[in-house]
Amino acid sequence: MEYISSSNKNIWIGELIKGRDSTKKLQNLLPRKIYNDGVLANDLVVKILGSFSNTLSTLSSLGPGELSPVISPCCNDRALDSDEIEKKPKDRRGCYKRRKTEDSRIKIVDTIEDEFAWRKYGQKEILNAKFPRCYFRCTHKSEGCKALKQVQQLEDGSEKFHVTYLGYHTCQNIHKDTQMFSDTSALKFYLNFKDPNINYSSPSSHSTITNANITHSSEREDDSNAQSDAHHLATSNDDKQSIALWKDIIGNLESPHEDIFKNGISVDDFKFDENVFLHI
DNA sequence: CCTATTTGACCGGG
DNA sequence: CCCGGTCAAATAGG
Asked: Which of A208, A199, A221, A239 is nearest to A31 (CA)?
């Protein structure tokens, strides 16, 4: 297996960013509601974006020499001596990489419900915040889907929630069909939020949000996720421009920079998340 | 049995 | 070392 060098890595990242940005432009060019064999064109674009984003975030977090199969130290079943008590907590050092904060979409909504199925994996008290922050990951993580979601209730008494989406869904069957909560109180009970009537000392809640798109949507949940409303921006469908973008994207994938693959890495070494180009 | 949630421990960036 | 993000054992519930 080939090792990654820092120069190679930058080339890879550059190519991926070009592909991702072209895909975003293409998404804005796509007319709404293009179906082919029941597949919505924008859904495909979203999946492509997801693959770009996930690959970029994975690649960005890798250091030199980490391209080959990543084996975390904690996952090595080092031989446990018999005198090593089983209750000893595991050494989890190096177990997880923190994800870059890029590609986050922030929304202010009045329900944490959206069309995706999420599984809660954590909750934290945040310093100087009245309400805890809840952490969710996609239910289909086992399929390799890296989408995450963070939820925190606003402190302005508006009963709204600050939701941050991180990463994109790459899973199949991403749309869930049922509503989990019928009303806000059940939802708040579920989230285990503190009683908003109690006075907690909370300094000026500054809202400096960087590196993210902010969307205020007070109406319904149907645009609570960037993946479903991104094509709102679609205005023109300039076919020539569209074709050029496709060529740009596919070209990036099929004939990558010579330097990338000259060291014995072949395209066969890559396994794409989905066969997104089959229908195109 | 299985899957989902809870919750304190753990990790790592700043 | 602090704080926020994640892990994973214990627990809940179908």
From this structure: A239
The pLDDT value given to residue A175 = 60
CA distance A260 to A195: 56
DSSP of A226-239? HHHHGGGG-----H
Asked if strand B comes closer than 7 Å to A92 Cβ, the answer is: yes
Indicate the SS3 state at residue A137. strand
Work out the average pLDDT over A177-187.
55
Residue A12's Cβ-side half-sphere holds a number of Cα atoms within 13 Å equal to 22
Whole-angstrom distance, CA of residue A24 vs CA of residue A86 = 50
- Quick one: average pLDDT of A4-27? 77
Determine if strand B comes within 7 Å of the CB of A102: no
Task: Answer yes or no: is A148 CB < 7 A from strand C.
Answer: yes
